[in-house]
Design goal:
By secondary structure, this protein is α/β, with parallel strands linked by helices. Helices cover about 30% and strands about 25% of the residues.
Length: about 625
């Protein structure tokens, strides 16, 4: 059903999808249960912009996960939950059991006065209740907004205020590696800053630590579920009704709530999941992301469950209680498809091959990469040592705003090439434009990546501020969705993402993607990770400033100055003298978002010597590293 089986099949499907997109997507949508079929497949107005898919179609996305599939595979495992501590038993939840939990919690939410269109904030760790919460909201037509349960109280309060959330679903605490994190106290602090829209807080018991409960507002999840019915009739939704809001980082500092709607998102996440990962019934699929990110929404919860897959949720971190934890989980659960971020791959690569030696990894069929362009060294390590030189690597490119994977190899079908996301999925029409918006046709071109025709899972708006959506994504190049990324299309027509366009450095008139320079730096045997930004240079226009994490220098008997020279020489050798960094700063870490993206905006400010407006850094994975970088760069506190 909607699966591509060969390279010839891919090209055939792609041609169909471009020649008649509406007929193509209608044929995919026909696989689903609609209470009322659509009147028209697509309405598209670029000027507003406004995209509507499957107009006047009526459905509920959870009926397509459960009712559509329970008869055929109600006893199949839907979710395997692997806890933080390997000594705690894993949980296997069947589709029927998940259905009952979702229906029960949907009844709980409705009993608390939460109805269709209400916004519900989910601030939960990676436990099964996070998926139950999302699906229960979708079941009753409430709009969920998941916030990573590591963000600060300020970040949570900003998001609550922006969408006027009526309820918060959270936990008492959270296990992360060897730490126990207070979660409920963060919610309490956030609610003290917000404006009173939240009427109900439902708390899941995870760590059983003592917490404060506000009478009338706060309730225990397990107590509310006692006696609640496990039968629930799903709310009828329009195809274009909001499914969720997901906040992404914006340049202004104000949260940017990306809105996804029901019908088109359902169809695209299902279709892309089946084809990119080449999932077969009975496979065990594991995406290591958190549900707080779009990857967790699309490729832990919605895409896999719509496809009847067994999806693994992991509460822990890759290095606890030892750096072989990922490989241990793969062997334990016989994982077939493994989808993780280059940041995690590089972190594990730094431990060498020893942590891999105790594990067979023979169940693996597909490796995936997500979140940022993967450098060649990490790609080869992943392919050669994790995949044992036999598993294809699907290097996926997409964004929160796109809803699903847009450019990627199809596992075992598309010939791969390190650092290349390869070819667009059917229905996706990428174009490369120059700075003036002129399309660069043919192969062996480089420019800005745009999409020229709508696809079902594209964002519809930014919550409460449609003009911001228009300006950010549709105003730069008329007639196109602008991704903000630079891209190269090679002689084979393959796409390589070069990083954000504002990360392209113009040195003496030569445009260089930061990823290209970083890949060269990372070729030095002592380099673990690097990040490159441009900074003003009175002769070149822009110079190259490199932040580099290296192995322990004492062990290598090198001075910092010797190592910096070696790094510069490496770049000169791999790319050419034009790409040599003007400054190299050795650091212990890089400022990153919780999803692993490097915050180059902060690094640019440091490189420019202007740290007066770094914005809120409390939501970073490692805010403390910013002070260290400033100190090492000679910027006074």
């Amino acid at each position: 059903m909607s699966r591509i089986h060969s390279l010839g099949g891919y090209f055939h499907e792609y041609q169909k999808s471009v020649q008649n997109p509406e007929a193509f997507w209608a044929s995919v949508a026909d696989n689903f249960y609609w209470r009322k079929k659509w009147d028209k497949v697509l309405e598209w107005n670029f000027e507003e912009p406004k995209a509507e898919w499957f107009i006047n179609g009526k459905l509920n996305i959870t009926e397509n996960i459960f009712e559509r599939q329970l008869f055929t595979h109600g006893d199949r495992t839907a979710i395997i939950w692997e806890p933080n501590d390997p000594n705690e038993p894993a949980e296997h939840i069947s589709y029927r059991e998940l259905y009952e939990r979702v229906c029960q919690f949907a009844n709980v939410l409705q009993a608390k006065g939460i109805a269709k269109g209400d916004r519900v904030m989910i601030y939960l760790p990676m436990i099964p209740e996070a998926a139950v919460a999302m699906l229960a909201c979708a079941r009753i037509g409430a709009i969920h907004s998941v916030v990573f349960a590591g963000f600060s109280a300020t970040a949570l309060a900003d998001r609550i205020k922006d969408c006027q959330a009526k309820a918060v679903l959270t936990s008492d605490g959270n296990y992360r590696g060897n730490k126990t994190i207070e979660v409920k106290s963060v919610v309490d602090e956030a609610l003290s800053m917000s404006d009173g829209s939240v009427e109900t807080v439902i708390v899941c018991q995870r760590t059983k630590q003592a917490i404060s409960m506000t009478a009338g507002r706060d309730h225990w999840w397990h107590e509310l579920c006692q006696g609640a019915s496990i039968e629930h009739k799903a709310e009828e939704m329009d195809s274009e009704d909001m499914l969720f809001i997901l906040y992404t980082s914006g340049s202004t500092g104000k949260p940017k709530g990306v809105v996804h709607t029901t019908g088109g998102y359902m169809i695209y996440t299902y279709y892309s999941f089946k084809n990119v990962f080449q999932y077969n019934p009975g496979d065990v699929y594991w995406c290591t992301a958190d549900v707080g990110w779009i990857t967790g929404h699309s490729y832990i919860v919605y895409g896999p469950l719509l496809a009847g897959a067994t999806t693994l949720m992991f509460e822990g971190v890759p290095t606890y209680p030892h750096p072989g934890r990922f490989w241990e989980v793969i062997d334990k659960h016989q994982v077939n498809q493994f989808y993780t971020a280059p940041t995690a791959i590089r972190a594990l690569q730094a431990f060498g091959l020893e942590p891999l030696q105790d594990y067979k990894l023979s169940s693996l069929k597909t490796l995936g990469s997500v979140g940022e362009p993967i450098n060649e060294e990490a790609w080869r390590w992943y392919h050669d040592h994790v995949g044992k030189d036999r598993c294809p690597v699907v290097d996926t490119w997409w964004q929160t705003e796109t809803g699903g994977i847009l450019i990627s190899p199809l596992s075992g079908i598309t010939p791969t090439k390190p650092t290349y996301a390869t070819l667009p999925l059917p229905g996706i029409q990428p174009v490369i434009v120059d700075a003036e918006g002129n399309e660069l046709k043919g192969n062996s071109v480089e420019g800005n990546l745009c999409i020229k025709f709508p696809w079902p899972s594209m964002l519809r708006t930014t919550y409460g501020d449609h003009e911001r959506c228009r300006q950010t994504y549709f105003a730069t190049y008329k007639g196109y969705y602008f991704t903000g990324d630079g891209v190269k299309r090679d002689e084979d027509g393959y796409y390589r993402i070069l990083g954000r366009v504002d990360d392209v450095i113009n040195v003496s008139g030569h445009r260089m993607g930061t990823a290209e320079v970083e890949n060269a730096i990372n070729e030095h045997p002592l380099v673990i990770e690097s990040a490159v930004v441009g900074f003003p240079h009175e002769i070149k226009g822009q110079g190259i400033y490199a932040y580099v994490i290296c192995e322990d220098l004492e062990k290598t008997q090198r001075t910092e100055e010797v190592l910096k020279k070696e790094i510069i020489d490496t770049v000169s050798k791999i790319i050419g003298p034009i790409a040599k960094p003007d400054k190299v700063l050795l650091v212990s870490g890089l400022p990153k978002t919780r999803s692993g993206k490097i915050m180059r905006r902060i690094l640019r400010k440091v490189a420019e010597g202007d740290v007066s407006s770094l914005g809120d850094i409390s939501t970073l994975l490692n805010p403390e590293v910013v002070e260290e970088i400033k100190t090492k760069a000679g910027i006074p506190a």
